[in-house]
Automatic annotation (TrEMBL):
Organism: Microbacterium imperiale
Cofactors that this protein relies on: Mg(2+); Mn(2+)
Protein name: Exodeoxyribonuclease III
Active site: Y115, D158 (proton donor/acceptor), H258 (proton acceptor)
Site entry: Interaction with DNA substrate: H258
UniProt similarity note: Belongs to the DNA repair enzymes AP/ExoA family.
Keywords: Hydrolase, Magnesium, Manganese, Metal-binding
Keyword Magnesium on entry: yes
One Gene Ontology term from the biological process aspect of the record: DNA repair
Site entry (Important for catalytic activity), positions: D228
Co-factor: note: Probably binds two magnesium or manganese ions per subunit.
DNA sequence: ATGTCAGCACGCTGCTGA
């Protein structure tokens, strides 16, 4: 099974590029973030014509997450237990929850498409919201793996955190001054790993960014960030055989500011082309 | 140069969010 995650920054603005990538790269499951549309606005037909089922969660022009899959998507879940909401500076479990998390099971793998809140600035209510959101995600992960330690669980998406200094190529991001690199954010990311997840891409692709700001010639200067991840439980991580960051998807006409991150899994997703039959 | 995008309100421009 080939699994990819991609913050597409509007599905409607670049659906041809996205479906084309999925087909050309033989992607079985594509988790998307920032689809920026409601369900009735999602270009379903183009995915279906290419052989994909789609499950999505979109409330308005902001955020929005989706999962496309060649095999049917089972046990679809919108948001995770404890996920905080946010509205006009009011944050908490009683505030409306934004469209930032969707999960489905494909080929026995529990896949989450996650769009972690940006945080905006260290003194903004969105920053506290981001940390609470990550804390709830950690708790969900701990509870889920405590109930089923052998579950192949993948948390994929845009985490809006640079876990290490090597993940920061944009000089405007400075520890103590901006989000994405602050010790509490990095601690929140580490807490996800401590909850039983591993970065499944870094061991196979040790360097490289997944995002470059549209402004300031960030891409030509290669002043990017690594903020998009595929985190996997032990059962998931053990099945990963290859990984890639598709830097070329930042090039050309109307790119997203993020590029796809891909892993190959030695788990049967219904394909019959790479698994010997033993009788 | 706060230097680019996307979507929305409506709208031919200005706002919000990233």
């Amino acid at each position: 099974m080939r699994l990819a995650t991609w913050n597409v920054n509007s599905i409607r603005a670049r659906v041809d590029r996205i479906v084309g990538f999925a087909v050309n790269e033989d992607v079985d499951v594509l988790a998307m973030q920032e689809i920026k549309c409601k369900p009735e606005q999602f270009p379903l037909e183009q995915f279906e014509a290419a052989g994909y089922h789609v499950e999505l969660h979109g409330l308005n022009q902001w955020n929005g997450v989706a999962i496309a899959s060649r095999e049917p998507l089972e046990d679809v879940q919108i948001g995770f237990p404890g996920m905080p909401g946010f509205l006009k500076g009011h944050e908490g479990p009683d505030a409306p929850r934004e469209a930032r998390a969707i999960a489905a099971t494909v080929g026995g793998v529990r896949v989450w498409s996650l769009y972690v809140p940006n945080g905006r600035s260290l003194d903004d209510p969105h920053y506290v919201y981001k940390l609470h959101w990550l804390q709830a995600l950690e708790q969900y992960t701990r509870d889920t793996l405590a109930a089923d330690p052998d579950l192949p669980l993948a948390l994929t998406g845009d985490f809006n955190i640079c876990p290490t200094p090597e993940d920061v190529g944009d000089p405007t991001l400075v520890e103590g001054v901006t989000t994405h690199v602050s010790p509490p954010e990095r601690a929140a990311f580490q807490a996800l790993l401590d909850a039983g997840l591993a970065d499944t891409v870094r061991p196979l692709v040790p360097t490289g960014f997944t995002y470059w700001d549209y402004k300031q010639l960030r891409f030509p200067r290669n002043e990017g960030l690594r903020i998009d991840f595929i985190l996997g439980s032990r059962a998931f991580a053990d099945a990963v055989t290859a990984a890639a960051i598709h830097r070329d998807q930042r090039k050309g006409e109307a790119p997203s500011d993020h590029v796809p991150v891909v892993v190959d899994l030695d788990i049967d997703a219904g394909d019959d082309d790479d698994r010997p039959m033993i009788f």
